[in-house]
Design goal:
The complex is a heterotrimer of chains A (338), B (251) and C (291). Chain A is mainly alpha-helical and 338 residues long. Chain A has 15 helices and two strands. In chain A, strands 1-2 form a two-stranded antiparallel sheet. The longest helix of chain A has 27 residues, at 226-252. By secondary structure, chain B is α/β, with parallel strands linked by helices. Chain B has a single domain, classed as P-loop containing nucleotide triphosphate hydrolases (Rossmann fold, 3-Layer(aba) Sandwich), CATH 3.40.50. In chain B, 37% of the residues lie in helices and 24% in strands. Chain B has nine helices and ten strands. In chain B, helix 5 (149-162) runs parallel beside helix 6 (179-195). Chain C has one domain. Chain C is globular and about 60 Å long. Chain C is mostly helical. Classes of the chains: A mainly alpha (338), B alpha/beta (251), C mainly alpha (291). The interface between A and B is large, with 33 and 51 residues.
Chain lengths: 338, 251, 291
C-alpha cells in the first residue's frame, strides 16, 4: 500500500467536505422546534437543548483531554460555577438579562479556572486528575456548607431571562419560551462555540497543544513553554464549560450543588469517551447521545452509576475510539475494501 | 571567540561524576564529533548544554552570554537546538506539522489561536523546503508515528534544524538505523549543516562516520575530556586508542 | 490540659485511619505504578462489610466480642482486590495512562452502586460495638475507649508493615519489583503474582481502615470519595509510593484536620487543601516521595 503522502502545500480551500456532513445536521437542528410543535411534544426541543449545552461543555473538556492530553475529573467545578454565577445574579443582583447571565458566568468561571489551573497544570496524569477532582469537591463542599448563601440542597431558583438585551421577553408560558426562543438562542451559541473551538484546535496554538500531548519534552525543546500553554488551554476549557453551565441554569430553572458533585464530572468524562475523544465532533455526539440515554435510562433503574461505570469500562476495553472514532474507522475500512 | 564554551562544568549523579569539571569549547561553523565509551558523559554534557539538566557547578557561555541559569526556553530562544538519541517526535501530527510547529514556534506564532495553521503560506512553504532538504517531502502528509526508523531520525533532526539554531546538538543521529542507511543519513545531515552554516556537535559511536565527517573530535572518558583534536591527531593518539578500543570498540 | 490530650488522641485516631488508606494507595503505586481511583470505595466496602457483620451477629455475642468481626472488612476488601486486579486492571498496564484512570474511575462508579445494591442507600451502623467499649476518664472529661483500639490498630499496622516490607523475603521481592520490574522478572520473580499480592494487601489495608472506623462513624454512601480525597492530601504531603511518607503525611493531616475542625469548622476541607497546595508548590514530590 504505497500511498503518496505528498501534501499539496498551497492553502487548503474551503472545506466543502465538512459542510457535506455538517450541512444536513445544521438544517435538522434548525427545524427541530417546528417538528416538535407538529407532534405536539415541545419537551423534545427542551431535551435537545440540554444535549447541545452538554455538547458545549464536552467541547471545552476535550480541549484538555483530546488535544492537550490532560484528563480532568473535576470539570463539574466550571459548569457549576457558571450556573451558580447565574443563580447569584438573580438572587443578589436581581438581574434578568441573559447576556448579563452569560457575562457573569464567564467571568466567574474564568477566575476559578485560573485559580485551579495555576495549581493543576504543574502536574500531569494521575496527580492532575486527582487534583482536579479534589478541587471540585472543595467547591462542592463550600456550596453545601454555606447554605445560607447558596441555598444548600434546596438550591436557588433561576427564572427565565430576557434575551438580546430585553428585546425578547418571556412569554407567559415558560415551556413555549424554552422550546422556541431559548432553544434558538442556545443553538446560535452552540454553532458559535463549535466554530470558535474548531479554529482554536486548528490554529498554531492548537498544534502546539497537540505537540504537548504527544511529547511534552520535545515540545519544550521546540520552544513551547509547556506549562503556560497548558494553563491557557485550561482557561479556555473552563470558559467553554462555564458558558454551558450558564446556559443550563435558566433551562433547568434551579441550581443545586449536584452539578458541582463529582459524579457529574464523571458524566462529562464518560460522554466524551463515549463519543470519541480523539476526534473533534466525537464529544458533541457523545453529549447528545448520552443526554438521551440518561433521560430514558434513569427511569428504568436506580443503579445508574453501575450502568455508567460498566459501560465506561467496556468502552475503554473494546471500543476506546468511542462512537465517532469507531464509526469512522469502520467507514474507512469499508471504503478500502471496495 | 568560540560559539560555546563551558567552564569547569560538573554534574554528579549520586557519587558518580557524570561530567567532571569539563572545559568544552565549540568554534563557530565547525562540525564537532563527541565520542567516548558508554557512560563517558557525552549525553550528560549535551543535556547540560541544552538545558535538560542543571549543573552542580560550572558555567556555560553561549555567544558571549552566560546561559547557565537559563531555562530550556531561554536557550532555544538564544539559538541552541537538539535532537534526541531515542527519537522524540509528535507522533499524532503529520510530518509537515512536526516541522511547521518548530517554525511557528520560532516565529512566535504559537500563541496565536485565532487563525488556521494550515492557512499560513509562508510557514507551509518553509516547512516543505525543509522536508525537501531531508528527502522527506513524499511523507509530508503522513503521521510521524508511521514513518520508518531512518525517516524518523531524519525528521527529528529536521525539526531541530527548522528552528534555525546557531548551535545544533545531535545525540546519536544514526543510532538504531541499519548500517546501510547510516552514510546516507549523515550525508544529508552534514550537507545541510554545512550549507546553512550551522555549528554542530554530534555524539556518535560509529567511528567511520566520525572520522569521515567531522572537523574536530573531542574524546570523553569517565566525565572528563581525554583528547581534543583533528581526526588525524585523534587517530594517532595512543591514549585514545587504548582507552576506546580497550574498553569497548563500537565500530 | 485535657482538651489538648483529647485533640491529640483525635488526631492520632484520624491519622491511623488515614495511614491505612493512604499506605495502601502508596503501596500499590509504589509496586505497580498505578493509582486506583476506586481505592476509597474499597475503604467504604470494608466499612459496610464490617458494619453488616457486626449487625448480623449483634445480640448473639457479647457486644465487646464483636470486635472479632473487624477483620471482615479487611478480608472482603482484600478479596475484592484479588479479583479485580487480574480482571480489570491487568489488561491496561501496557496502555496509555488515561485508560488506566478511566477504568479505575469506572470501577469507582460500579463499586458505589454495588454497595448501594447490597446494603441500600441508608447508612449502616455498628455503634453497638463502639459503645460496648465504654469510656474512660481523662481528668474531668471522658473519652471513648474504642478510639484507643483504633489507634492501637494503626500503630500495629504501621509496625507490621514495616517489618513485612523490610524484614521478610516477600518484602524484598516487593521492593525489588517496585524498583525494577524487568530486572526482577529476569531474576525469576513472578511479577504477575507480586502484583496481585501487592494489590490485595493495599485493598485489605483500605478495608481494614473502613472496618475499624465504622463503629464510631457508621457506613455511608459517599464515604469512599471523601476518603480518596483525604488520602490524596496525605500522599501529596508524604510522597506517593512511600510508606514512611504515608505515615508522616497521615500524622500531619490528622493534626491539621483536628485543628481545622476546632477553629475553622466550615472550611476544614479548604484548610487541608491549602496545606496540600503549599506542599505541592514547595516540594512537589512530597516529603519522602520519589522524584
Amino acid at each position: 500500500m504505497n500511498q503518496n503522502h505528498t501534501l499539496n502545500t498551497s492553502i487548503p480551500r474551503f472545506p466543502w467536505k465538512v459542510l457535506g456532513y455538517a450541512g444536513p445536521v445544521v438544517v435538522l437542528l434548525l427545524v427541530v422546534p417546528f417538528v416538535a410543535d407538529y407532534v405536539k411534544d415541545p419537551y423534545q426541543t427542551i431535551l435537545l437543548s440540554y444535549g447541545l449545552i452538554m455538547g458545549i461543555a464536552a467541547l471545552g473538556f476535550n480541549l484538555l483531554l483530546g488535544y492537550t492530553g490532560l484528563l480532568s475529573f473535576g470539570h463539574s467545578a466550571y459548569f457549576g460555577m457558571g450556573a451558580y454565577a447565574v443563580a447569584f445574579s438573580v438572587k443578589y443582583l436581581h438581574v434578568t438579562s441573559m447576556e448579563v447571565f452569560l457575562a457573569g458566568g464567564l467571568v466567574a468561571t474564568v477566575v476559578v479556572s485560573a485559580l485551579f489551573g495555576f495549581v493543576c497544570v504543574r502536574y500531569t496524569r494521575i496527580f492532575f486528575g486527582i487534583l482536579t477532582l479534589a478541587l471540585s469537591q472543595v467547591l462542592w463542599s463550600l456550596a453545601f456548607k454555606f447554605f445560607w448563601v447558596t441555598g444548600g440542597t434546596d438550591g436557588l431558583r433561576v427564572p427565565t431571562p430576557t434575551l438580546l438585551g430585553g428585546m425578547i421577553k418571556t412569554s407567559q408560558d415558560k415551556v413555549i419560551f424554552l422550546s422556541h426562543a431559548y432553544y434558538y438562542y442556545v443553538l446560535i451559541i452552540f454553532f458559535g462555540c463549535v466554530a470558535v473551538m474548531w479554529v482554536i484546535v486548528n490554529s498554531p496554538f492548537g498544534k502546539a497543544l497537540q505537540a504537548i500531548r504527544d511529547n511534552e519534552i520535545r515540545a519544550e525543546f521546540v520552544g513551547v513553554q509547556v506549562r503556560k500553554y497548558r494553563f491557557v488551554a485550561f482557561l479556555i476549557s473552563g470558559a467553554f464549560t462555564g458558558l454551558a453551565g450558564a446556559l443550563w441554569a435558566p433551562l433547568n430553572g434551579l441550581t443545586t450543588p449536584d452539578i458541582l458533585y463529582w459524579p457529574f464530572s464523571g458524566e462529562i468524562v464518560f460522554l466524551t469517551v463515549l463519543g470519541g475523544f480523539r476526534t473533534f465532533a466525537g464529544p458533541i455526539i457523545g453529549a447528545v447521545v448520552f443526554n438521551y440515554l440518561k433521560t430514558y435510562a434513569v427511569g428504568y433503574t436506580v443503579y445508574w452509576q453501575l450502568l455508567l461505570g460498566a459501560v465506561l469500562v467496556t468502552l475503554v476495553l473494546s471500543m476506546p475510539l468511542g462512537i465517532l472514532g469507531t464509526v469512522s474507522r469502520l467507514w474507512l475500512k469499508l471504503r478500502k475494501s471496495r | 571567540m568560540s560559539l560555546l564554551s563551558t567552564q569547569r562544568l560538573t554534574k554528579y549523579f549520586g557519587d558518580t561524576h557524570a561530567v567532571d569539571h569539563v572545559d568544552f569549547t565549540v568554534a563557530q561553523g565547525e562540525l564537532l564529533a563527541l565520542i567516548g565509551s558508554n557512560g563517558a558523559g557525552k549525553t550528560t554534557l549535551v543535556n547540560l548544554i541544552s538545558g535538560l539538566l542543571r549543573p552542580d557547578s560550572g558555567r556555560i557561555v553561549f555567544r558571549g552570554t552566560d546561559v547557565t541559569s537559563q531555562s530550556v526556553y531561554g536557550r532555544i530562544r538564544a539559538g541552541i537546538a537538539r535532537s534526541f538519541q531515542l527519537v522524540n517526535l509528535f507522533d499524532q501530527l503529520t510530518t509537515l506539522d512536526n516541522v511547521a510547529l518548530a517554525i511557528f514556534s520560532r516565529e512566535g506564532k504559537t500563541r496565536n489561536f485565532a487563525y488556521l495553521a494550515d492557512h499560513d503560506p509562508k510557514v507551509r512553504q518553509e516547512a516543505k523546503e525543509v522536508l525537501q532538504q531531508f528527502g522527506l517531502e513524499n511523507k509530508a502528509g503522513m503521521l510521524a508515528g508511521g514513518l520508518a526508523q531512518g525517516e524518523r531520525k531524519l525528521l527529528d533532526v529536521a525539526v531541530a534544524v527548522a528552528l534555525r539554531p546557531k548551535l545544533l546538538l545531535l545525540d546519536e543521529p544514526t543510532s538504531g538505523v541499519s548500517t546501510r542507511e547510516k552514510a546516507p543519513i549523515m550525508d544529508i545531515i552534514t550537507a545541510i549543516v554545512r550549507s546553512e552554516h550551522i555549528t554542530a556537535v554530534i555524539i556518535e559511536h560509529d567511528m567511520d562516520v566520525v572520522f569521515k565527517y567531522s572537523d574536530r573530535i573531542v574524546v570523553m572518558h569517565q566525565g572528563t575530556i581525554l583528547a581534543d583534536g583533528t581526526p588525524d591527531e585523534i587517530r594517532t593518539n595512543d591514549q585514545v586508542i587504548t582507552t576506546l578500543i580497550g574498553t569497548q570498540a563500537s565500530v | 490540659m485535657e482538651t489538648l490530650i483529647i485533640h491529640l488522641l483525635n488526631s492520632l485516631l484520624y491519622a491511623s485511619v488515614l495511614f491505612l488508606i493512604a499506605g495502601g494507595l502508596s503501596l500499590i503505586y509504589g509496586v505497580m505504578g498505578i493509582v486506583n481511583l476506586a481505592h476509597g470505595n474499597l475503604y467504604a466496602l470494608g466499612a459496610y462489610a464490617t458494619a453488616w457483620a457486626v449487625g448480623r451477629m449483634f445480640g448473639s455475642v457479647p457486644d465487646v466480642a464483636l470486635f472479632v468481626f473487624l477483620p471482615a472488612g479487611a478480608l472482603v476488601a482484600g478479596a475484592a482486590g484479588a479479583i479485580l486486579e487480574p480482571t480489570l486492571l491487568r489488561p491496561f498496564y501496557r496502555r496509555a495512562e488515561e485508560y488506566q484512570l478511566l477504568v479505575t474511575f469506572g470501577l469507582l462508579l460500579i463499586l458505589d452502586d454495588v454497595m448501594r445494591f447490597l446494603w441500600g442507600p441508608y447508612p449502616l451502623s455498628a455503634s453497638a460495638l463502639y459503645e460496648s467499649f465504654g469510656s474512660f476518664p481523662i481528668f474531668d472529661s471522658i473519652y471513648p475507649t474504642y478510639n484507643l483500639l483504633v489507634i492501637a490498630v494503626g500503630v500495629a499496622a504501621a509496625a507490621f508493615l514495616w517489618a513485612f516490607v523490610y524484614k521478610t523475603k516477600f518484602g524484598v521481592i516487593l521492593r525489588a519489583t517496585s524498583q525494577d520490574k524487568r530486572m526482577a522478572s529476569a531474576l525469576g520473580v513472578n511479577v504477575n503474582k507480586v502484583y496481585i499480592q501487592a494489590f490485595t494487601i493495599g485493598c485489605a489495608m483500605a478495608g481494614l481502615a473502613g472496618a475499624i472506623i465504622v463503629p464510631s462513624q457508621g457506613a455511608v454512601l459517599g464515604m469512599g470519595v471523601d476518603a480518596l480525597i483525604l488520602a490524596f492530601v496525605v500522599v501529596v504531603i508524604g510522597g506517593l509510593g512511600s510508606l514512611e511518607g504515608a505515615l508522616v503525611g497521615a500524622l500531619i493531616t490528622g493534626f491539621v484536620r483536628e485543628a481545622g475542625i476546632t477553629f475553622f469548622p466550615e472550611i476544614e476541607l479548604a484548610v487541608l487543601y491549602l496545606i496540600a497546595a503549599v506542599v505541592l508548590l514547595v516540594r512537589p514530590a512530597g516529603l519522602f516521595g520519589r522524584a
